[in-house]
Amino acid sequence: MLEVDGLRKRYGDTVALDGVSLTVRSGEMFGFVGANGAGKTTTMRIVMGVLSSDGGEVRWNGDRAGHETRRRFGYMPEERGLYAKMRVGEQIEYFGRLGGMSPQAAKRSADELIERLSLTERRGDDVDSLSLGNQQRVQLAVALIHGPELLVLDEPFSGLDPIAVDALAGVLAERKAAGVPVVFSSHQLDLVERLCDSVGIIKAGRMIAGGTVEELRARESRKRLRIVVTGALPGWADRLPGEIVAKTDRTFGDGARYDEVILTPTDDQEALRVAAQAGQVQHFAWQEPSLAEIFREVVA
Fold this sequence. Notes:
The protein is an alpha/beta fold. It has helices at about 40-50, 65-70, 90-100, 105-115, 130-145, 160-175, 190-195, 215-220, 270-280, 290-300, and strands spanning about 1-10, 15-25, 30-35, 55-60, 65, 75, 150-155, 180-185, 200-205, 205-210, 225-230, 240-250, 255-265, 280-285. It folds into two domains: about 1-215, P-loop containing nucleotide triphosphate hydrolases (Rossmann fold, 3-Layer(aba) Sandwich), CATH 3.40.50.300; about 220-300, 2-Layer Sandwich (Alpha-Beta Plaits). The protein is about 35% helix and about 30% strand. The strands form three sheets. The chain has a six-stranded mixed beta sheet with strand order 6-7-8-3-9-10, sandwiched between helices. Strands 2-1-4-5 form a four-stranded antiparallel beta sheet, with helices on one face. It is elongated. Keywords: Antibiotic resistance, ATP-binding, Nucleotide-binding, Transport. InterPro entries: AAA+_ATPase, ABC_transporter-like_ATP-bd, ABC_transporter-like_CS, ABC_transporter_ATP-binding, DrrA1/2-like_C, P-loop_NTPase. Belongs to the ABC transporter superfamily. This is ATP-binding cassette domain-containing protein.
């Protein structure tokens, strides 16, 4: 289990981290989200020992993390940490050796990862000749080569096409199933919502919300209704009680028109009455907020 307890970091007058704490358990995937400059990368670098903190502590399985502990972690920085002119296979093996593996063990592990990440045809290519997606796959292989006990990944899905996203997500799911805690940051909140067991939201160096997506939804202060009505006259939605978040005119596959309204109601029963009077109610139900909506509300 990874425990980050009260991390603090300043750069002159700028407070980068102000008491950041989080916990990631065995076999848990943790999504770390926040705006640019919120403190995600700084936190990850302190976890990995790339930066020192001004206060707080990083613990692994209850003990303070030191150099030897961090050798068993896998790290994927947002910036490329690869040798551009080194061949793919040689590079992955090299990082395995840096992680303390024997030449034979590093080659075996590299062979497995190259096949799993669909890099077999690129094994002899220089890294700088690869596409962005394949470079990301190599970077992930480097993070995984020594069988890390913890994975810390900074924006691993940035700039990837859907096929590459699915490939990386599949590998991370395998490591999670094997009991490895996985921490990754991302601005792709739909991806975080789909993959992660828990989420931490950071703003200006402070953790302002955390928990499962379901727990974060339960804290959402504004419940929303989705109402779909056919056959209504223009302007009917203006009579709905509450705040209209979105209103759209759409058509079904057969060409029939319908109105879709997302409403924060002051009286849900009155909203139902107004909709029923306006036309045929096709859908009337509470709408669960997405992680993106939760994020906007929390950081506002």
